[in-house]
Amino acid sequence: MTDSTPPSTSSRTTGDIVHLDPWQDLRALTRARIGLGRSGNAQRTTDVLAFQAAHAQARDAVHTALDVDAMKAALGEPCLVVHSRAPDRPTYLRRPDLGRRLAPESLAELKKGDWDVVFVAADGLSSVATAEGAVTLYQEMKKRLPHWKIAPLVMALQGRVALGDEIAQAMGARMVVMMIGERPGLSVADSLGVYLTYAPRVGTPDSARNCLSNIHLHGLKTAPAADKLAWLMKEALSRQVTGVALKDDSPDEHSLLSQGR
Amino acid sequence: MAFHHTLGGERHTFADLKALLAAASSRRSGDELAGLAATSDARRVAARYALADLPLSTFLATALVPYEEDEVTRLIVDTHDKAAFAPIAHMTVGGFRDWLLSHEADTQALRAIAPGVTPEMAAAASKLMRNQDLMSVAHKITVVTKFRNTIGLKGCLASRLQPNHPTDDLKGIAASTLDGLLYGMGDAVVGINPATDSVANGLALLDMLDHARQRYDIPTQTCVLTHVTNTIEIINRGGAVDLVFQSIAGTQKANEGFGVSLAILKEAREAALSLGRGTLGTDLMYFETGQGAALSADAHHGIDQQTVEARAYAVAREFHPLLVNTVVGFIGPEYLYDGKQIIRAGLEDHFCAKLMGVPMGCDVCYTNHAEADQDDMDNLMVLLGTAGITFLIGVPGADDIMLNYQSLSFHDILTVRNLLGLKPAPEFAAWLERMGLYDTHRERMLPVSPGQTLLGQMIA
């Protein structure tokens, strides 16, 4: 730690200084921004810019529109695209209730079928996460569920978790898997969350869902996430329930609300 | 009973007291989401005119949530101190605002009326106040609390050191704790939000924190912010519980959403008191609150989010807390959309709590989907520091890697202490000096690296 040192963008990266940095070993213990040093009381230029870069990435993840064309190309099979009742991002952020319901024209386009499950890829709070992870996860799931009647993938814009309920209800699916971008943090802006709901309908409470969160390159990887999800889906189909009843067997279930945040 | 005011030739009608309070509130996304906000700027000001003429005693005659249905209402009504209320009993809300800002309303006078001020009175007055008014009045109020040190003295700004880790790794948490202590943080509390909310995990975390505190004889308190029922169980198993933490809200139904009641809070407080761990005092409850909590639990009973938030302070007040803080920007842009709304709400929460005699601190913070950034946090921290905030929360580099949001960095709190000439709690400041971390002469934290202090051995 240096006090009143002129800010230098290279002080922690040049070979000489690295070995003298007393925080180097401690940084291996946590990704927290510890041992930053200071200039007077303030953060140094290099740290201020690193923070702004991370914040910019997180904000871009929130505000970038989902690249539906790229996802369609990656998918290479028929799919559906729907919109929630939130017409744009500012409305979406202010009105979570609108993000939970289908726009009337989208609802009119969905046809009833006889499906075991419908997968929905929604932008949520990180379109980057959805664009990077949802199609791959969907394809992994199809491999793991060979005898299931799986509806065409639905891509949803300005969607919240509960939007999947109305989609599944309209399409006559027995369960819905909502793959949705999670609220980005500074260290991870592309984390995907997956919510499984049996017998979904408009108004289904969140307690009736099972959740796998933190799916990204440095968190829960796609293959193990797909294994867990397949297990949950088979259990859900045989027990005809999701949520608290499956919770005890699902190691990743946790809620920030339970600790007050 | 309906309320009216004619402004610019248009007669505005407000169906009842709840509608009037909601319409008078400054604009925020949560009230718009709930369909309670004023539908025009003119209507908002008309509501303020009508509110200004309302006698304060109206709030004693009109419960916003029925007495029979809600234990928070019963608490507010049953504990109202009529003698303390007497000096302001004749005032209107507008008159009350003027009196609060007057020189007659000094520290002594404001302390005397606190038990006579209900949350609804505080909220109503705040709706007629500009940001500077909220600061001026709060600045005159002193709320002092004690456990192992003295929190809330004039000229002091305490801090919560928040060393969270996404997997609750003990060494990772210790590394962040060391970092914070070297910046003079942690006099309010060293408090962890656990990633896993279990009794076993809470015991392990508390054990680690308590060992560090005892080893270096740090005059502060530690806390794992787990659910209050877990804390009771941790006490039963002999855990090192200094403070009892719980998130609270302003209605019975919202508190039920948090899995708590007044009875559970009382039970937990008594259990912790029985441990007798405080050396200077027995204030040991730690509460968090935040605008939007009641609405998100669908438990706001049609009350605007600022007024229902103030009702949470009645719950806090009942249990003699050491610390309370609003998590102002944490709950999301559907409740407070941008920096302007977050800053206003932070000042309102601080004012209302202090007016009611509650030791209010703040997590000056925002999430990545809010229209806010670190510049907004700089503004709010300086405004709150000026208003006499009890404590601020600091995390390494302002980046909470467990809860995924941005708060203040340790640097930021050093900066606000320096800008405003504020010091840590006196016992903690003396400890910093003893440990060779603080230069009393030049009034600044010394640049000390982990290898240059005994604290460095904390991680072994």
TrEMBL record, chain A:
<dbReference type="GO" id="GO:0009350">
    <property type="term" value="C:ethanolamine ammonia-lyase complex"/>
</dbReference>
<feature type="binding site">
    <location>
        <position position="161"/>
    </location>
    <ligand>
        <name>adenosylcob(III)alamin</name>
    </ligand>
</feature>
<comment type="pathway">
    <text>Amine and polyamine degradation; ethanolamine degradation.</text>
</comment>
<dbReference type="GO" id="GO:0031471">
    <property type="term" value="C:ethanolamine degradation polyhedral organelle"/>
</dbReference>
<comment type="function">
    <text>Catalyzes the deamination of various vicinal amino-alcohols to oxo compounds. Allows this organism to utilize ethanolamine as the sole source of nitrogen and carbon in the presence of external vitamin B12.</text>
</comment>
<feature type="binding site">
    <location>
        <position position="211"/>
    </location>
    <ligand>
        <name>adenosylcob(III)alamin</name>
    </ligand>
</feature>
<dbReference type="InterPro" id="IPR042255">
    <property type="entry name" value="EutC_N"/>
</dbReference>
<comment type="subunit">
    <text>The basic unit is a heterodimer which dimerizes to form tetramers. The heterotetramers trimerize; 6 large subunits form a core ring with 6 small subunits projecting outwards.</text>
</comment>
<dbReference type="GO" id="GO:0008851">
    <property type="term" value="F:ethanolamine ammonia-lyase activity"/>
</dbReference>
<dbReference type="GO" id="GO:0006520">
    <property type="term" value="P:amino acid metabolic process"/>
</dbReference>
<dbReference type="GO" id="GO:0031419">
    <property type="term" value="F:cobalamin binding"/>
</dbReference>
<comment type="similarity">
    <text>Belongs to the EutC family.</text>
</comment>
<dbReference type="Pfam" id="PF05985">
    <property type="entry name" value="EutC"/>
</dbReference>
<keyword id="KW-0456">Lyase</keyword>
<dbReference type="InterPro" id="IPR009246">
    <property type="entry name" value="EutC"/>
</dbReference>
<feature type="binding site">
    <location>
        <position position="182"/>
    </location>
    <ligand>
        <name>adenosylcob(III)alamin</name>
    </ligand>
</feature>
<keyword id="KW-0170">Cobalt</keyword>
<dbReference type="InterPro" id="IPR042251">
    <property type="entry name" value="EutC_C"/>
</dbReference>
<protein>
    <recommendedName>
        <fullName>Ethanolamine ammonia-lyase small subunit</fullName>
        <ecNumber>4.3.1.7</ecNumber>
    </recommendedName>
</protein>
<keyword id="KW-1283">Bacterial microcompartment</keyword>
<dbReference type="GO" id="GO:0046336">
    <property type="term" value="P:ethanolamine catabolic process"/>
</dbReference>
<keyword id="KW-0846">Cobalamin</keyword>
From TrEMBL, chain B:
<keyword id="KW-0846">Cobalamin</keyword>
<feature type="binding site">
    <location>
        <position position="363"/>
    </location>
    <ligand>
        <name>substrate</name>
    </ligand>
</feature>
<feature type="binding site">
    <location>
        <position position="288"/>
    </location>
    <ligand>
        <name>substrate</name>
    </ligand>
</feature>
<keyword id="KW-1283">Bacterial microcompartment</keyword>
<dbReference type="GO" id="GO:0005829">
    <property type="term" value="C:cytosol"/>
</dbReference>
<dbReference type="GO" id="GO:0031419">
    <property type="term" value="F:cobalamin binding"/>
</dbReference>
<dbReference type="GO" id="GO:0046336">
    <property type="term" value="P:ethanolamine catabolic process"/>
</dbReference>
<dbReference type="Pfam" id="PF06751">
    <property type="entry name" value="EutB"/>
</dbReference>
<feature type="binding site">
    <location>
        <position position="296"/>
    </location>
    <ligand>
        <name>adenosylcob(III)alamin</name>
    </ligand>
</feature>
<feature type="binding site">
    <location>
        <position position="194"/>
    </location>
    <ligand>
        <name>adenosylcob(III)alamin</name>
    </ligand>
</feature>
<keyword id="KW-0456">Lyase</keyword>
<dbReference type="InterPro" id="IPR044939">
    <property type="entry name" value="EutB_dom_2_sf"/>
</dbReference>
<feature type="binding site">
    <location>
        <position position="246"/>
    </location>
    <ligand>
        <name>adenosylcob(III)alamin</name>
    </ligand>
</feature>
<comment type="function">
    <text>Catalyzes the deamination of various vicinal amino-alcohols to oxo compounds. Allows this organism to utilize ethanolamine as the sole source of nitrogen and carbon in the presence of vitamin B12.</text>
</comment>
<keyword id="KW-0170">Cobalt</keyword>
<feature type="binding site">
    <location>
        <begin position="160"/>
        <end position="162"/>
    </location>
    <ligand>
        <name>substrate</name>
    </ligand>
</feature>
<comment type="subunit">
    <text>The basic unit is a heterodimer which dimerizes to form tetramers. The heterotetramers trimerize; 6 large subunits form a core ring with 6 small subunits projecting outwards.</text>
</comment>
<feature type="binding site">
    <location>
        <position position="402"/>
    </location>
    <ligand>
        <name>adenosylcob(III)alamin</name>
    </ligand>
</feature>
<comment type="pathway">
    <text>Amine and polyamine degradation; ethanolamine degradation.</text>
</comment>
<dbReference type="GO" id="GO:0031471">
    <property type="term" value="C:ethanolamine degradation polyhedral organelle"/>
</dbReference>
<dbReference type="InterPro" id="IPR013785">
    <property type="entry name" value="Aldolase_TIM"/>
</dbReference>
<dbReference type="InterPro" id="IPR010628">
    <property type="entry name" value="EutB"/>
</dbReference>
